[in-house]
């Protein structure tokens, strides 16, 4: 058995098809141990460190950092028995020091699905494992055929060689006769303008009048031959202007250019690719409907203040988003159809809620979810949300934490936005946008008073949720936020 083993990029999640190499943690010649992290790969917005399957010495690295590699492609070669001496020469006479080259799988990592007929599972364009489509980047079936990159410096296939013609014989230039100086036409002033027209701004004209200077006798030094204050002052003091040829000055402001030098081209990969694929698929698959509800949340904000003052909650992160999450979970129990998935010829209603919380990170917006959030107490839910956000911002969210979501909340209020029309994550039937909480005039007990108000936006899949169900679900969330204590007493 060969000592040199090629390590293939593994499937780091359900149905993963590719990953981008962010950083190599080893280099050629390093001695590594079993399960030692050797490479950091980004998949589905998560940076994952991959451990070595064997101990040994790194012999070759096949793909540099920044390369997107298909699953199953060899990425590194490891000598599993470096202490056994130099590598023996092959039967073909190859030198012992020759590094292994990528296998056939590496050279044919991109497999293009047939353009006609059914596509078998596993090929690009075929169904994903398990008969379902995952929502993370690089997951599930491809909708377009893969293409190999053109070779650098290659000649286009359609380029044709043009016949080479003999260059014409050089022609001696004709002698140039200096042109005679041009005198101003009769009737022209010193500015070369007929009819006594003088270019000068009103303040300059006033200055010339005050100093008794005839503008028609001056030669302007300003743009387009216009007369400036300096020209007038020079004429008034008797200082002659420097003799200069009469020329037309170029406009002071150059014309704006709109070329490639003022453009930036950003490769579409990683986070951006995930967002584009998911949002495009969802927007053109699920018929979206969005409803809005403006709520007086003054009582909810006061309830949060009282909660923070309790001794057992002093070290817990308490935010309005916590009450919104609790409101959503309670409303789902009252309207379970909202927590479902469209599966073609059937609707899958789920008895568990994997609650997604949109989180902004350096790599972009990701939506990890809290598994079975409906079973958590309010304190457990607060801790889970804090851990989720901190893990996401550190870039350590795993693909498993971002898969399987059933319902999502996006907190656009942290950006000072009142609300929005969010797009459904694929496979989910509802997403709630939570807007900023603002102090606004509000009619309370028959009088206009300053109250804390927010606007909720609920987008839902109209194939599953009709207007009545969506309205009742949104109303229940609003009722909870308007009076949390009363809602808890009434619903639990």
Task: Summarize the entry for a quick read.
This protein has nine helices and 19 strands. It is of the alpha+beta class.
How large is the share of residues in beta strands?
15-25%
The total strand number stands at 19
Low-pLDDT sequence parts = 90-99, 106-188
Quick check: average pLDDT?
A: 77
H/E order of the elements?
EEEEEEEEHHHHEHHEEEEEEHEEEEHH
What labels would you give this structure?
20% strand; flat; 21% helix; four-stranded antiparallel beta sheet; 19 strands; alpha+beta; 492 residues; seven-stranded mixed beta sheet
Question: What do you see in this structure?
Answer:
The protein has 9 helices and 19 strands. The protein has helices spanning 104-107, 202-211, 229-237, 270-283, 298-309, 320-334, 378-393, 467-482, 484-491; strands spanning 4-8, 18-24, 31-32, 37-43, 46-51, 56-61, 68-70, 74-79, 288-296, 340-342, 347-349, 355-357, 359-361, 364-366, 369-370, 407-410, 430-434, 438-444, 447-461. Helix 8 packs across helix 9 (484-491). The two termini are 66 Å apart. The strands form 5 sheets. Strands 9, 12, 15, 16, 17, 18 and 19 form a 7-stranded mixed beta sheet that branches. By secondary structure, the protein is of the alpha+beta class. The longest helix has 16 residues, at 378-393.
């Amino acid at each position: 058995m060969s000592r040199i083993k090629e390590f293939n990029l593994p499937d780091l999640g359900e149905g993963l098809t590719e990953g981008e190499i962010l950083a190599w943690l080893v280099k050629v010649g390093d001695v590594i141990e079993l399960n030692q992290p050797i490479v950091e790969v980004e998949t589905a917005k998560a940076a994952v460190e991959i451990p070595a399957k064997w101990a040994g010495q790194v012999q070759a690295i096949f793909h540099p950092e920044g390369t997107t590699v298909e699953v199953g492609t060899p990425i590194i070669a490891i000598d599993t028995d470096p202490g056994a001496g130099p590598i023996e020469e092959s039967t073909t006479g190859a030198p012992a020091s020759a590094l292994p080259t990528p296998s056939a799988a590496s050279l044919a990592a991109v497999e293009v699905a047939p353009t006609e007929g059914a596509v078998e599972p596993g090929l690009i364009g075929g169904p994903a494992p398990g008969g379902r489509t995952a929502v993370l980047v690089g997951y599930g079936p491809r909708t377009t055929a893969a293409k190999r990159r053109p070779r650098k410096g290659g000649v286009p296939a359609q380029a044709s060689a043009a016949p080479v013609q003999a260059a014409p014989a050089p022609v001696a230039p004709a002698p140039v006769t200096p042109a005679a100086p041009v005198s101003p036409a009769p009737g022209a002033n010193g500015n070369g303008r007929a009819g006594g027209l003088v270019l000068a701004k009103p303040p300059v004209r006033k200055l010339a009048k005050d100093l008794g200077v005839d503008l028609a006798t001056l030669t302007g030094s300003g743009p387009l031959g216009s007369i400036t204050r300096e020209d007038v002052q020079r004429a008034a003091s008797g200082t002659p202007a420097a003799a200069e040829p009469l020329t037309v000055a170029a406009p002071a402001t150059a014309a704006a250019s709109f070329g490639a030098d003022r453009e930036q081209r950003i490769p579409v990969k990683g986070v951006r690719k995930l967002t584009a694929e998911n949002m495009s698929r969802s927007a053109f698959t699920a018929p979206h409907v969005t409803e809005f509800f403006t709520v007086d949340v003054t009582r909810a904000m006061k309830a949060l203040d009282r909660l923070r003052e309790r001794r057992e909650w002093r070290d817990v992160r308490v935010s309005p988003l916590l009450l919104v999450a609790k409101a959503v979970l309670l409303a789902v129990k009252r309207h379970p159809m909202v927590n479902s998935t469209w599966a073609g010829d059937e609707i899958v209603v789920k008895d568990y809620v994997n609650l997604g919380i949109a989180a902004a990170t350096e790599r972009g917006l990701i939506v990890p979810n809290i598994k079975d959030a409906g079973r958590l107490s309010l304190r457990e839910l607060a801790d889970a949300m804090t851990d989720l956000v901190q893990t996401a911002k550190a870039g350590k969210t795993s693909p498993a934490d971002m898969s399987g979501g059933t319902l999502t909340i996006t907190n656009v209020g942290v950006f000072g936005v009142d609300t929005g029309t969010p797009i459904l994550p694929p496979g989910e039937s509802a997403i709630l946008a939570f807007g900023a909480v603002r102090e606004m005039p509000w009619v309370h007990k028959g009088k206009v008073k300053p109250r804390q108000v927010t606007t909720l936006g609920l987008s839902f899949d109209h194939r599953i949720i009709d207007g009545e169900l969506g309205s009742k679900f949104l109303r229940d969330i609003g009722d909870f936020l308007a009076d949390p204590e009363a809602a808890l007493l009434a619903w639990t």
